[in-house]
Request: fold
Amino acid sequence: MVIKKTIALAIAYVYVLLAQAQSIPLAKDGVLDARGYDFATSSLKLNGEWQFFNNRLVEPFQVVENTVSIEFPYQWSESESQGFATFRLRILVDKRFSSLALDVPQLYSAYTLWVNGTAVAKNGVVGTDRKSTQPQWLPQVVSFKAGVDTLNITLQIANFYHSIGGAKNPIQLGLPEKLAATQGTAHLVNTILLGVLTFLGVFFLSVYVFAKREKSALYFALLCLTWALRSIFSEQYLAIHWMPSFDWELGIKIEYLTLYLTMAWAISFIAHLYPLDTNNSVKRLLFYPNFLFVFVTLATPALLYTRFLDVYLVLAGALILYAVVVILRAMLFERYGAWFSVLGIISLVAAFAYNYLSYQGVFEFSPLTFYTAYLVFFFFLAIALAYQLSPKAGERNYSESLSLDDVMAKR
Reply:
């Protein structure tokens, strides 16, 4: 009875959250009515129908006839990813806000944004061809003076360098102090993640070199160091904040290469952590293709190798699924410290679920929660590795049940 009531309350709570998400105003025919919206509670995603001018760089307040509307964020199809366009949105707001701010994510792959005729944000240089366009990915929060009842937003985007064009993630409107605090927290936690992973990587690399030459320690060190590098070349792109002139092509290569290498080190780490529960043929099948993607990324420009990301994600999904199977098998056969690996996987799944649900508007995204889940994931894996490196591991692993039949017989 208690369980049924708990489930019913949980379902009711989810419905309430969804109802709140559905009440958020959306743009219609290029106009978004945000009058009465409480920006003190949360920022507002500028989703809905924006005016769209394909292959045209329309200036602020330029009069254009025969306009069309399109759902924003709008990601150009792969066949039409090369080009330029202008998006427009008129937002109705309360005049009581003396200043507001925009949280602009990375757009593909150069843009300039105006509010009421004033350029407030840009990445790279918007052009009409590859030669005149300069790409840049630098998510940013920009504030501007408000005190008016209408905000006219003009957004020019150009892309000639990536297989995706346009906007993948929404732009958010909110209070300057709130959006700046959110970004500051994200950068702080991202920096902590970088420091912790670097420390873990150096520590276990030292363990491998100077103490126990266990391959599991080596691959975990490589996993931590690779993800540490990736953490500043993805999501918040901290490296670009620190070095705004950093070459865009090199930055994208680092982002993709660290993804492939992270997966390669992860499957090798799991295989050496629980060798009795890993099929070496499956492990090799999932390990070596990563380096094919590494080669293609090194040998070709972003316009080409970014097209294969969806293909790679199939391999990555299979790799993660097999890693989960190995960890669950290790838990079933009571490998020493296997439960910590299970807890790590649970925290990783929680991070993915949280990111997805916040993107759907169920609740507002908190970078502190998201990156903390990642830290917990690596923390539990480090504990699981420490258990396996202990003197008791060999005796415990081989003395415990080694087959499902034996486990069933014990029961």
Confidence is low (pLDDT under 50) at residues 1-20, 399-411. The chain has 13 helices and 13 strands. The two ends are 30 Å apart (CA to CA).
